[in-house]
Amino acid sequence: LETTEKIVYAMVDAGADLIELGIPFSDPTAEGPVIQEANIRALAGADKVTTDKVFDLVRKLRHKVTIPMVFMTYVNPIFTYGKEKFMQRCVECGMAGVIGPDVPFEEKGELSGVCKEYGIELVSLIAPTSHERIKMIAKEAEGFLYCVSSLGVTGVRKQITTNIGEMIEKVREVTEIPCAVGFGIAEPEQAKEMASLSDGAIVGSAIVKIVAKYGEDCVPYVAEYVKKMKAAVEEAGK
Question: Which residues pair with 147 in a beta bridge?
């Protein structure tokens, strides 16, 4: 948790526009091996990382961090914690939203009501297989729309073959909400390409990989990486 705190400050200084924080969970179904292993490390340590500890960390971060922060988590940890209590704590510590990759659009009523009640945005995902559901999901999207670049789970990919441009066009027919592309983005060139088609690039596994490699010494390496990716995204906007 101490290292995570330092990483967040470093990423903000390096130009990150939004921070996505994971809440450790034993069965993170949308994640590839890199983030699965990070979940195991967080849950297996002597100082097991609990949901309460993550909330306490966010409260601490908020003294310095002014950019939006969202949770990437699963329905189970939210339900186990208690939906009302979870959203209440999100408000108290200044979280802007929640990404729930295992919440299908048709089932989002399980969370959307309580999110609305507390003013927490429930971020929707659209995938390459969403097809005719894209407009339906986009119409009700809040915060930003998370465009999943590839089939399968999170993780670094050499190539992204999905027609992201077409996906964004369908979204734009019904909403002006910002769209950011994630799943598989690891190189500055990929970030530039995705940001030229959308409003941003989401990077998870590539950063978690650096953390796994360098452990407590990872902070300068993460900062350097985020700077490169931010420069690539800005390049796309010129």
Answer: 126, 181
